[in-house]
Amino acid sequence: MxxxxxxxxxxxxxxxxxxxxxxxxxxxxxxLRDYSSQQLANALGISQSSVVKFTQKLGFRGYPDLKYSxxxxxxxSEEGAAEPPAARAGDALGSMxxxxxxxxxxxxxxxxxxxxxxxxxxAIASAGKVFLIGLGEDDLHARVFALRLSLLGIVAIRHFxxxxxxxxxxxxxxxxxxxxxxxxxxxxxxxxxxxxxxxxRGRVVTVTRHTSNPLRAMADIALAVAGHDDASxxxxxxxxxxxxxxxxxxxxxxxxxxxxxxxxxxxxxxxIQHMLEP
Length: 278
Fold this sequence. Notes:
By secondary structure, the chain is α/β, with parallel strands linked by helices. It folds into 2 domains: 3-82, Winged helix-like DNA-binding domain superfamily/Winged helix DNA-binding domain (Arc Repressor Mutant, subunit A), CATH 1.10.10.10; 114-273, Rossmann fold (3-Layer(aba) Sandwich). The protein is 64% helix and 9% strand. Strand 1 (130-134), helix 9 (138-151) and strand 2 (156-159) form a beta-alpha-beta unit. Helix 1 (3-10) runs parallel beside helix 7.
């Protein structure tokens, strides 16, 4: 596993000092080779022993081992990026994108603990109604996931319009679930809807980037998504792919966790196929 992926996956379980070290490394990975452990400590205003303990806690023998591992990971990334466009065309370009998506999906799996995933599955399975909302590209995931929940016989109410969702949330009851898809988790209207839903004693599930943000902070169940790349057009694709993998995993759990739900899915798919046939 890439050391940077490992740091991202462990960040939420770190102390305040450890998070400062982690954030510095993640934001300045290419500069790390020029820093000794003492220089890194001085830059952060902490003790050198804190840096050493941080590296050992991650499973490295010491700071030099971490620095070498980060340098290797960056080198492999730069080698792929340095290839001329002709060399990256066709299968090579597709292979590179596939690798980036795989790495992001693996990091997302590590960030979200198994017990968090189980809690999300159980919340949806026991909910009277599941409300879903996402704006922009986030609505794509809300729409598809709502359809899949409906096929399982779960009442799913999805809106991309904030005003309509605010009205629908007024109909929520204790035990209902609101799933909010928001890449950056900062949209004020979504924060207000989530807050009101909690006042109705419903449970709020958020799907956002693995960053500190208002929506994630107020969630009952917070799902974090990894997806980082220097190219903005690649970063968006990697993030969307990781979200889809997360939702697919929950859907499979819901299918396999209840025979009646699985039977409803099969019956609904057959009914839809029959309707679509000429």
